[in-house]
């Protein structure tokens, strides 16, 4: 019973941080001009990359940051700057990526990292590993990213429901939200560093 309780706590905490439902409008705006088959490929890549990144950081996260002398706050600021650049590109050109970018590139950055697997998800996974053990941490990652993959697979239905105009409006509005999230990441990182 303790294992089930720990697993539930670990998975719920990670799911809240990854927040695939809250990120749905952002995913729609990032893949607005992309064909359905390419969008599926992007979300498959995003889920796989997110899974690998979380497992790598679960086992070696603190060591990797220590080796390079990087604090988690620096990681947050870097993620915030990346998201801010993406938001500006959406606002100016209506798209977050160049036409030449492959689905693999868009799926890996920015969808897998830093939207799905940001500093919060990495920190939570490391926390789960330290508090609940390796098996619980790994199963929590598998559960959360499996649910995320299912949510992303139904993005086409959501996209069709909104239509071209709805998706365009959401893309612009969400660009402002992405910018706000980016600034919050940067401010949080700086504040924690100064503290």
- Rg, Å, rounded: 17 Å
Q: What is the quaternary state of this protein?
A: single chain
Low-confidence stretches: none
Helix percent reads over 70%
Largest sheet: none
End-to-end separation in angstroms reads: 39 Å
Relevant terms:
single chain, 195 residues, mainly alpha, 8 helices
What is the gist of this entry?
With 195 residues, the protein is mostly helical.
Please characterize this protein's 3D structure.
The protein has 195 residues and is an all-alpha fold. The chain has one domain (2-194). It is 85% helix and 0% strand. The chain is built from eight helices and no strands. The longest helix has 40 residues, at 155-194. It is globular, with a radius of gyration of 17 Å. The model has no long low-confidence stretch (mean pLDDT 80).
Topology, please?
Layout (H helix, E strand, L loop, with lengths): L1 H17 L5 H7 L5 H32 L4 H22 L9 H14 L2 H14 L1 H20 L1 H40 L1
């Amino acid at each position: 019973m303790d294992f089930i309780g720990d697993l539930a706590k670990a998975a719920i905490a990670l799911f809240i941080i990854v927040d695939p439902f809250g990120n749905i409008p952002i995913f729609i705006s990032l893949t607005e001009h992309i064909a359905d088959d390419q969008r599926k490929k992007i979300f498959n890549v995003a889920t796989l990359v997110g899974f690998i990144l979380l497992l790598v950081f679960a086992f070696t996260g603190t060591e990797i940051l220590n080796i390079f002398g990087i604090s988690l706050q620096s990681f947050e600021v870097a993620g915030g700057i990346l998201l801010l650049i993406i938001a500006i590109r959406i606002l100016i050109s209506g798209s977050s990526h160049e036409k030449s970018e492959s689905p693999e590139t868009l799926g890996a950055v920015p969808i897998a990292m830093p939207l799905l697997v940001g500093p919060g998800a990495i920190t939570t996974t490391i926390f789960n590993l330290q508090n609940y053990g390796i098996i619980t941490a790994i199963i929590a990652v598998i559960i959360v990213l499996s649910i995320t993959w299912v949510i992303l697979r139904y993005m086409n239905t959501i996209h069709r429901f909104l239509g071209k105009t709805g998706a365009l409006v959401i893309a612009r509005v969400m660009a402002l939200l992405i910018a706000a999230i980016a600034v919050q990441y940067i401010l949080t990182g700086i504040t924690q560093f100064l503290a």
